[in-house]
Write a structure and sequence with these properties.
The complex is a heterodimer of chains A (about 160) and B (about 290). Chain A folds into two domains: about 80 residues, Beta-grasp domain (Ubiquitin-like (UB roll), Roll); about 60 residues, DNA polymerase, domain 1. In chain A, strands 2-1-5-3-4 form a five-stranded mixed β-sheet, sandwiched between helices. Chain A has about 160 residues and is α+β, with helices and mostly antiparallel strands. Chain A is about 30% helix and about 15% strand. By secondary structure, chain B is α+β, with helices and mostly antiparallel strands. Chain B is globular, with a radius of gyration of 20 Å. The chains are: A alpha+beta (about 160), B alpha+beta (about 290). Chains A and B meet through β4, α3 and α4 of A and β1, α2 and α6 of B. The structure holds flavin-adenine dinucleotide (FAD) and FE2/S2 (inorganic) cluster (2 copies). One FE2/S2 (inorganic) cluster binds next to loops of chain A.
Chain lengths: ~160, ~290
């Protein structure tokens, strides 16, 4: 076991965990933040996406010790108090979420994308979300939601 | 079968010296961990050797891009995102910029490192063909000192490299000599984004009045390791490329390519498909060179 201290959704947290434990499992099991989902467990699907120091990462491929000192943002940290973040609101309004398994990852990937490209082209959206798989929506509604979010005031 | 992560130790020393000391203390006993995009997958699949790991996460001295007038040096821990953001790599080494741009998803590029890509040694990896074509030179480092090695000498067989058990890849140096070359790179996979290649070619040619003055062709998934195609290159070297000569030259080049490659049948594709597609990619490249 190793003691690991990091910041999750702006709160400092310290846990005891095997250093090779996946960040995904630390979030879900140790911190009870179950927003990040396990789809594939091998970097292919993006349902475990979180932001680590502002960068989109697959938490199933990050070991606990590698998160030492990092600032992690999960889907639980995206809403502003009781108010949905504009990206979440747009996913809701445009039908960008159905079963919801991919949605936390999609929203974090969108957050990361809009920081890089505030007005992304469709191609940039497709590339930015290529690592996030969705079995329900057929993607078109997700792309619509991202475009709508890009046009909102008060996005990331 | 998942492995139990509790069975693996991991330490994260804060200096390069400390990491090298640990590797030297018992050569081969520790596995270096960079971005983890290979290692964490292996752990999940139950095929990560049961050895303690040493993380390179604190070694900022391995994450840099140093640009000089005549050359550029890329630290082993540089991520694909770092590479894509670098303006000099984009203009001087477009093959590397493009290879980085399709090495998995954005999340993968944020973590995956160029050092991890080459040490992992997959014959299908994306940056090796580009690095081979640019005649990259590796700097390898251990407590014994540093040594330089032409990247072409690094891959010895299927996932076998010339790295000693106590060594790290420190950095990769490229000469800025390729401004007048016409670049070509194409990856063929099951889908455009985020699929490991079935076949990929990265190539450069310098033309002079319709004659091929210098040509370099690198390939992925055509042998048991990343490879250049020297026989195919020499068929094309110093040849005049015109609408008339293209047909016969292509035939010779395709034959040379078939002779010098040994593609395999595996879960991603078949040898026949790989060989045929590689020939087609070569043809696509040569057509862009006609009348340049
Ligand atoms: C979903 C997914 C998609 C992918 N798509 C692609 C793709 O399209 N193209 C492609 O080429 N690859 C792809 N990969 C593979 C992987 O992302 C790359 O090979 C990446 O570059 C590995 O780097 P890393 O830092 O994550 O390596 P790690 O997993 O940390 O390490 C890989 C190996 O290199 C060794 N190592 C790392 N750094 C050093 C060093 N400096 N010195 C000595 N040894 C070192 C480690 O010990 C280990 O053996 C994909 C992976 C995933 C999970
Ligand atoms: S669960 Fe991490 S990428 Fe699929
Ligand atoms: S909404 Fe079901 S997987 Fe995307």
């Amino acid at each position: 076991m190793t003691t690991i201290t990091f910041t999750v959704n702006n709160e400092s947290r310290t846990i005891e965990a095997p250093p090779m434990k996946r960040l995904l499992d630390v979030l879900r099991e140790d911190l009870h933040l179950t927003g990040a989902k396990e789809g594939c467990g091998e970097g292919e699907c993006g349902s475990c996406s979180v932001l680590m120091n502002g960068e989109l990462v697959n938490s199933c491929l990050v070991s606990a010790l590698q998160a030492e000192g990092a600032a992690i943002t999960t889907i639980e940290g995206i809403a502003v108090g009781q108010k949905l973040h504009p990206i979440q609101q747009c996913f809701l309004e445009k039908g960008g979420a159905q079963c919801g398994i991919c949605t936390p990852g999609m929203i974090l990937a969108t957050h990361h994308l809009l920081e890089k490209y505030p007005q992304p082209t469709l191609l940039q959206i497709q590339e930015g979300l290529a690592g996030n798989l969705c079995r329900c929506t057929g993607y078109t509604r997700i792309f619509d939601a991202v475009q709508a979010a890009a046009n909102q005031p008060g996005k990331p | 079968m998942h492995s139990n992560p509790a069975q693996y130790d991991l330490i994260a020393p804060t200096t390069l010296e400390a990491v090298l000391d640990i590797l030297a203390s018992e050569p081969g006993h520790y596995t270096p961990l960079a971005g983890g995009t290979e290692i964490m997958v292996a752990l999940g699949a139950g095929r990560l050797p049961r050895k303690p790991l040493v993380s390179l996460q604190h070694l900022d001295e391995l994450r840099f891009i140093e640009v000089l007038d005549s050359e550029i040096t890329i630290g082993a821990r540089t991520t694909f995102t770092d590479i894509r953001r670098d303006a000099v790599i984009a203009t001087d080494f477009p093959l590397l910029n493009l290879a980085a741009s399709w090495t998995g998803s954005v999340a993968n590029q944020n973590r995956g490192t160029i050092g991890g890509n080459i040490v992992n040694g997959s014959p299908a990896a994306d940056s090796p063909p580009a690095l081979l074509v640019y005649d990259a030179v590796l700097t390898l480092i251990s407590t014994r000192g540093t040594r330089l090695m032409p990247y072409g000498d690094f891959h010895l067989g299927y996932k076998k490299t010339a790295l000693a058990p106590d060594e790290l890849v420190h950095s990769i140096t490229l000469q800025r000599d390729f401004k007048d070359y016409i670049p070509y790179i194409r990856k063929v996979g099951t889908r455009n984004a985020q699929a490991i290649s079935k076949v990929a070619i990265a190539a450069l040619a310098r033309m002079n009045n319709g004659t091929v003055e210098d040509i370099r062709i690198g390939a992925a998934s055509l042998r048991d390791r990343p490879t250049r195609l020297p026989a195919t290159e020499s068929v094309l070297q110093n040849q005049a490329l015109t609408v008339e000569t293209l047909g016969p030259l292509l035939e010779k080049a395709r034959a040379a390519l078939r002779r010098e490659t040994l593609p395999i049948d595996d879960i991603r594709s078949t040898a026949r498909y790989r060989s045929a597609v590689a020939g087609n990619l070569l043809e696509e490249f040569l057509r862009t060179l006609v009348a340049v």
